[in-house]
Amino acid sequence: MPPGTIDCTSLDSLGQAMPERPDHPTRELPPDSLVHGNLQIRIYGPPQSELARTVGDRVAHWVSRLYQSYGADPSNPPLSASMEAVAEAMGHRLEGLSLILRKAEARGWKTSVDDDMLVIYTGIAEDEVRAQLEEDGVLSLVQEFAMRDVAQTGEG
Q1: What is the separation of C-alpha 22 from the centre of its chain, rounded to a whole number of angstroms?
Q2: What sign has the CA pseudo-torsion 112, 18, 155, 6?
Q3: How far apart are CA 34 and CA 126, in angstroms?
Q4: How far apart are CA 116 and CA 7, in angstroms?
Q5: Which residues neighbour 154 within 8 Å (Cβ) at sequence distance 6 or greater?
Q6: What are phi and psi of 8, to 5 degrees?
Q7: Residue 5's pLDDT is what?
Q8: What's the pLDDT score for residue 19?
Q9: 21-38: buried (b, 16+ CB within 10 Å) or exposed (e) per residue?
């Protein structure tokens, strides 16, 4: 495995399969997410990407159920329903980021925001960062967010 990568799980926190990426077939954390022991996690994606995740045949099951509760077709939902799905997903993401931040701050790691990126300065080696994230129970959450970032932006 190349330096600066972390094995990623194949399911997100809602139990949905993560999108396949031909340029990341082994589900590794993109190298620019963990550089010199520092983590970078996107807080939110571009609006079009966030909304696009709520429309079409491959939406998460909970999004389909939300649309069904409004009598809407998941392939062509009203914008209000899509926006509600984005709000729900964003709330879960922010809760997860808050948990990651709490764990990082408890370890004495410095945290900051740079544009739309959450940056965590650890001051330790990458393999130790992975071990401590695993110990704190947030490694899979970091992996999930990093893979979703790649799927939304194509960066990584």
Answers
A1: 18
A2: positive
A3: 7
A4: 24
A5: none
A6: -105, 150
A7: 32
A8: 41
A9: eeebeebbbbeebbeebb
Residues 13, 104, 6, CA angle at the centre, nearest 5°? Answer: 55
Dihedral angle of Cα 126, 28, 151, 153, to the nearest 10 degrees? 40
pLDDT in tens, the chain (156 residues): 333 333 333 333 333 333 443 343 333 454 455 556 788 899 988 888 889 888 887 888 999 999 999 898 888 899 999 999 999 999 999 999 999 999 999 999 999 999 889 999 999 988 899 999 999 999 999 998 887 766 655 554
Query: Looking at the DSSP assignment, which residues form a beta bridge with residue 40?
Result: 119
Report which residue type is found at 84. Answer: E
DSSP letters, 84-143, are HHHHHHHHHHHHHHHHHHHHHHHTT-EEEEETTEEEEE--S-HHHHHHHHHHTT-HHHHH
Angle at 28 between CA 26 and CA 34, to 5 degrees: 165
